[in-house]
Amino acid sequence: MPTAGALKELYYYSLRLWFFLTWPIFKRLCNYLGARSEYLEELKIETVARLEKALWVRNNLGPEFFYLSGGKFRRNPTVVDMMKGWLVLNGQISEKNILMDTNSVQTCEGIEKFVKYLFGLHNDFISVYLTTSWYHLPRCRYELKKSIEKFRRESEIDLSFGNPKFIEIIAVSVKPPWTLECLKYEYLYNLLVEPINLIIMRFPKLKKWLGKRERKNRGVE
What we know:
By secondary structure, the protein is mainly α. The chain contains eight helices and four strands. A two-stranded parallel sheet has the order 1-2. The longest helix has 21 residues, at about 180-200.
């Protein structure tokens, strides 16, 4: 088993790998095995692109609330806190119209909390504008539909939940800009890792174990 120091070196790409297409997979594996995720001092270009698209959706299609879910790291503010600040500053969005999940570390975890919130509204008709980068959309849409089905079954038993007659899912695809940063750290990484995540999500026990590892690595209780 590599030492923590070697894992950290791999995570930050200080060890130059001969096959550059392998580093995203190494990064993912090192994260699971114990390399610490770093806190970001500012939002990534990809995240800003998502927020800009979300503002466009708000201004043109008129959803009432934003629901933000993002990575939790060892320090505050969280990524979601920074996203909220960006929306308030750049979009003149009222804080009361921004709902946040600051504790999830996996996509499935954040989506389940979001769907639980939806079923607590007791509304018959709900429209969800699922806004994320195009390479995340297939997995996010799959997880969202699966979670809705789960809560429909639970709502038949637990009457404290609502049971919306219809939840409309509108997928809003975001194309991050073709900058060097996005090409290196978003497109290359996600195009290689997303197929792995699509496989992992079909094995609940494996997904749960990996989630525990990532929570530990990020310092999340």
